[in-house]
Amino acid sequence: MTEKLKVLAHLTEKNKQTKHAILIDPADQTPDVAAKRCLAAVNAGSSMILIGGSSDTDTKNVDATVIAIKEILELVIWAKTQDSMKLETTPVPIVLFPQGAAALSSSADAVTFMMLMNSTSPRFLIEEQVAGAPHIKKSNIEPLPMGYLVCAPGGKVGEVGKAKLIQKDDIKRVQAYALTAEYYGFRLLYLEAGSGANEPVNPELIKAAREACDLTIIVGGGIRDGQTAKRAASAGADWIITGNLAEEYDDADELQRVLTNFIKDMNA
Ligand code: 1GP
Q1: What pTM was estimated for this model as a whole?
Q2: Which range marks the domain in which residue 48 is found?
Q3: Which residue of 198, 218, 244 sits with most ligand 1 atoms within 8 Å of its CB, as the best mutation to test the pocket?
Q4: Atom of ligand 1 nearest to the CA of 247
Q5: CATH number, position 148
Q6: pLDDT at 1
Q7: Per the domain annotation, does 249 fall within a domain?
């Protein structure tokens, strides 16, 4: 991913099919295990790897995880093409989804440069971003301008991020946030229910956001099967993120099968 804005173009590409991304929390698995899970996801058809977590991540474990994933994906590409000149990049971008400025890695392709729009704390609205921006510039990774909205139940990220949660029936509010995100110039809008949520984002909220703005809509939190993903996709999600799902599988072949079916069902 050497050209400017290449990852943003990949994320915002107009596509009838909803895409899947796997979220890896470096605090939950070793870099080696993370790399094997990512390989299974890419083989299953996932289109992006997100790296992040809301606690216990720092530059050291994020960096080690990104490097291990890059290595395993490059090896596979090399084995397929037998052409080391094509090793410059991996086709599936590795994107940081940081809890704050302290969890950045210069080895990634891009970073979601996000405002937790419904936070009540200046730290998540602007301060972490100001602290991280010079590091992003220095590492030459691509910033992806994103509005991040935590919806009920919200989980840990809602608590840590001091979010005034978007409730299931807050249709007008989610629309106002979606418009605000567009007017700020963000290109992506992430509707988050919280990792491990017992209920995903209400599809009605996704639909409302879709109608209110032209942004690329990303949805995650509590999505564990293709049917649930399909409901979010039909409501207007361009990307579906799953984190916990992959952590349930230690066997890479089994994970690949599960994710292959997930992606198939999502777009059925
Ligand atoms: C969390 O939306 C993601 O930021 C993924 O959530 O772990 O519940 O899939 P899950």
Answers
A1: 0.94
A2: 16-257
A3: 244
A4: 7
A5: 3.20.20.390
A6: 44
A7: yes
